[in-house]
Amino acid sequence: MKILVLNSGSSSVKYQLVDPESRSFLAKGLIDRVGMSDSVVTHERHDGDKVKISAEVLDHQTAIEYVLAVLLSKNHGVIRDKSEIDAVGHRVVHGGESFAESVLIDERVIDEIRENIELAPLHNPHNLRGIQAVLKHLPGTPQVAVFDTAFHQHMPPHAFLYGIPYLLYRRYKIRRYGFHGTSHFYVSQRAAELIGKPINELKIVTAHLGNGCSMAAIDHGVSVDTSMGFTPLEGLLMGTRSGDLDPAIILTIVGREGLSLAEANTLLNKHSGLLGISGLTSDMREIISEKKTGNKQADLAFQVFAYRIKKYIGSYAAAMGGLDAVVFTGGIGENSPDVRAESCKNLEFLGLKIDSDRNNSPEKEKLISTESSNVKVFALPTNEELVIALDTMRIVGTPVGKTVRPAGLGMNPSGDNHRDATELSRRGRAGESSGAGHHSK
Ligand code: ADP
To answer: How many angstroms is it from 342 CA to the middle of ligand 1?
Structure first.
């Protein structure tokens, strides 16, 4: 089976053609600078063949045309005909309360994704453009939406409600949603595999640390809390986002600096975080190299970043009443031993101890805690595309005569894990909110 996985952003389209049965990619790439005349297509085949093409990609329709052209290309392609693509899986950022699972896309689903634009005005419109482009260029090919928010839809009300009038939740759906769900799901499942225990026996804290950063408390395979909230601005310090702050700060800044609300929004989303504190860069590699040359502001940014991760580890251990594993992923989480070591410093009281040699070893997927550490700590590469491909395969069904996928890693595994997750979520959900199934609005 061949599944095309698409992540359609405002100015880029990421794609991957995945064989979900062998869990491998056939080709992947990125169309950057969509909407501009100097777009770039970067394409890589499974055998290492790479090509970079300059193009004019003015919209998502053209971007999908390019994706198909390069997948079909004689020299760099991997398929002979479009019909070899069995289904398309889309990363969709916001499913609101409508979707707690991945779903086959039909007119009604498109309408609901559109309805959720008010919750994710910067993302859902582009995700929809990707879906519309596939409808045009691959008509009749089944499409599946996999939501960034879905994995967190089982959070109990005491975790997702803010301390503001309840009316505002009812009226404007203001609540915690959480993001990076597919990544938190994947690395928690992978950690359970590596530990060798069913996920429904484990309490895991996951930290996805990229340009955007979030953490999740995953109890028995269910996300019971997460650090991003109504929007991806809340929680950890990020590359350019502030993360947690006293809401009165916004009122003060707007008053003192004479900023408009739009300017305050830009300040908190684009000029804060690592960049704001260091005054130098949002890039953790540069923060670390500057800090090592004695730059005090870079050191401060690094300390704030790591301290906040440590606080979330502690609070999520308390929220779950225990901790079996911590997982680091994302560009920073996978690659920075310094961040991992600093965030886990002095957590021995929780039974968590980092092994410095393991933490600094070059392997990509590794256990970094000591043999005697009660809490297992991992650095694991995430693989959101694989989860999207597996979910897509499960939802569109396996063609007659083909092997069924190995169980386990789709977002909605049909085994015991999922039953437990569903039961837990039923116990935890607010009366008027959606249940475990999708589309229960
Ligand atoms: P995105 O959220 O855009 O997908 P990534 O997951 O690729 O981003 O993460 C980007 C971040 O990862 C940047 O801050 C970058 O500096 C950091 N990063 C990548 N490699 C390293 C490394 N070796 N050490 C520290 N940070 C790294």
So the answer is: 17
